[in-house]
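Dear U.,

For the methods section draft, I wanted the exact inputs and outputs in one place so we can describe them consistently. I've listed the two proteins in the order they'll appear in the manuscript figures. Please don't edit the token lines directly; just add comments below if something needs changing.

First protein:
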Amino acid sequence: MKKYFSIKIPLILFSAFLLTSCMARETYERPKEVVNENLFRTDLLPKDSVSLATISWRDIFTDPVLQQHIAKALENNLDVRVALQNISAADSYLKQSKAAYFPTLSAGPNYTFQTQSLNTQSGQLLNQRKYGDQFDISANFGWEADIWGKLRAQEKAEVANYLGTVAAHQAVKSDLVAAVASTYYQLLTFDDQKRIINETISLRKKNLETTSALKDAGTLTEVAVQQSEALVFNAESLLINIDVQIALLENTLSLLLAEPSHAITRTTIDAQKMPVSLALGYPANLLANRPDVKAAEYRLMNAFEMTNAAKANFYPSLRLTGSGGIVSGDLDNLFSANSLFANVVAGLVQPILNKRQIRTQYEVSLANKEVAYLNFRRSVLTAGKEVSDALKIYQSQDSFISLKRKEGEAYRKSVDYSQELVNYGLANYLEVINASVNHLNAELNISNAEYSKLDAGVELYRALGGGWR
């Protein structure tokens, strides 16, 4: 009977600990107040169950040259490769957390030589020095029962950390696709503006020849000639600035491709098209599509589970330790059956005073959890703002471009009319100058507006969580 109770009672106590562990660890639930149907503004665009973000970037950016640049950037970009190494490191930590359930085990041979001091009590009694040898081959093991769910919480925290690095990798890819596309479109825009400026230079040189002829005929003065020449110099200086901007953008795109700076192959701005139909999806889709939002939630999950682990430190831990092997003072008898030894120790350890380390760790984990929650909430709100901003810009560009084109056409006609009037001596040449400057500015504004339309489409695609698939 005594033997029965000596076995039964520890089993009952251990079962009680396991039952209690179900109450020690809380289960993560996504904060309900973070996401609502008014996350981004969709006044003029109906929501859909399918989001633009679920479409592959190859279906959005159809320019084959741009596709080649994006594919190369995704393969070679250094930020993407760093993110992959972060995933590898997180995977190692995850494997370590899974291995925490297993016991520790170490083994090896040892040799001990011992002699006592003659100045000790035992040494003085023997009045002579004794020498002793000990040989042993032993193994030590230790195991801690996860009765409060601490190891389980740490494993879940590492799972969240791993998934967070995967989402961060996706976010890098999403940003990279958008950056390559935006830089490429900016290059095409500068190419278009370079064409406009070259045409303007040719036109202004012809006007300079006309002005010089009118001056020789006595219709205009040298002032008009100098002003016409100044307009040519002004356009040529703009051309130099455009060339500089093109070189800088080529260097930027080369960096995104992880290549030394070089000229970038490209098509034309007229060949670029963005999808006419835009499906935003429901606001809650941002949590599934936006990798940066997913990463923020995984950080919240990690902090939540680390709080569970910190809380479990307040409770007693059940540890099982032991050692065994063979030991002998004589090497010849080391492998004898009489040299075998073993010991096993099981015990509960309840922390009582430990310089407030456990309390501090728990309070810090609570603060970290609150910070992670606030960052998650901010990431969701930021995502909603970015969608609203990009959508507003994208929707307004068509009307803006249409008006700018009408403005440019009006200035072009004013240049022709004013030049004709000057030829007949019916107008001041300042009117030609003003009309020419305004016409060039209008043409450049049209080019910038067309780029803004494309860039807003890129930003809307990224803001909805696209580009990483």
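Second protein (the one for the lower panel):
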Amino acid sequence: MFRRKSIITVLATGMFLSTGVVYAQTNGAPNVQADTAFDNKVIKKINAENMYNTIKYLSAVPREAGTEGEVRGVEYIEGQFKSLGLETRRFPFPIYDYKTNRELAEVDGVDLKGHAFSGSASGKVTAELVNVGKAIAGTVPDDVKGKIALVERGEITFVEKVKNVAAKGAAGVLMYNSSSNGNNFGQANEEIPAVAITQAQGKELVDRLKNGPVEATLDVDIERIEKTSYVVEAKLKPNKNKDTGQIVTIGAHHDSVPNGPGANDDASGVSAVLELARILVNTPIDTEVRFLTFGSEERGMMGSSFYVSQLPQSDIDRMVAHFQMDMIGGAEAGEDHPLGGLIMYTIDGQKNLVTDLGASASSRMYDVAVPYGQLGRSDHQPFHDVGIPSALFIHSPVEPQYHKPTDTIEHISKEKLQQAVSIVGASAYQIVRPDTPALDRAHVSPASVEYKFEDRPVD
């Protein structure tokens, strides 16, 4: 097995060394010509028109998680996988919407006009306020027990802040903004009542606490509404006589934002997953490939997190690379960066097997090595967290239509689709093709290329 390696060191022996993994060369030099020939087996079959038609179908109806639109998309994706003869499975998982029936935050009888967190626990509590700053783990004082924690927004997620004060026995949370942009935050975790207030209100309470105790009342009634979202998985198995025992996963998310067509975000990624499935199903391989589409990415990678959480450890141990595609068709994305702004983001900002292969493939096909950067916010996160080399392929910065009703088929570039899928397809094929028995015993290697880190914001 190989794990989390970076193909960057060339030894005098004529071998690529990647922290314990050696990639053989032919005649003392990378066999780039052989790689290109193998690339062509996959790349020449990619049809951007197929992908465009998939995007057109999926983006005709918003696919918000837990809605009929998501089900429509899932049924289409399932049907496409099944038509290819793939072993296809739908994984349902629960998600929750919240209806606020009552939200009240009072200090000395004055209503602060706060907003209850989506997912706040219901309940009424009156207690002293305790200023706990940003509620970072290890900084929450013990005297918050039985009291209401006054928390400043920033640095860590809302859920983490609530968890940290609840772990110390806090009875409620009053969280104020770190900027002047309103007081409507994200989702809590149903542990204790949690209400958001403005920055000005929070700072005033911080000052008041310096002069003595302050009593507050939180009164929250949140109704939880359970819905169902889905992950779709399709397995492509190799010939049993040539099976390396390894697994490569290729994914995208099929949900969109509420009322959003989601043509680029992320029907484009789904179209690529389906297109690669269509090609690889008729291509000799020696490694299992799992094609995945995730629901509820827009709710915080819930689908991919669910999928990874239910995997047996034996599967995780066999997974050697995860390729995630999100927003790979935006005509107006990427500004003037090379390759339309395509970049590979990793969670830790470090190179890994996926980025090495991506840079090598793009260099062979387009004479430009795709750069890498650091970013979460997509479904490569859960795979990285369990030790699987992972990267997000995306055009960055994103287009003006991002998360808007204008994210429609008219703003999709077939050229960018072709380009991104060619690079991801060639990269994945480098692992799954039969002449690379398990990569660590390969006779044909990707060329070692220089590719740079870019601190490029996605939006």
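Candidate sentences for the figure legend, describing the second protein: The longest strand covers residues 215-236. Residues 1-34, 181-185 have pLDDT under 50 and may be disordered.

Thanks,
Y.
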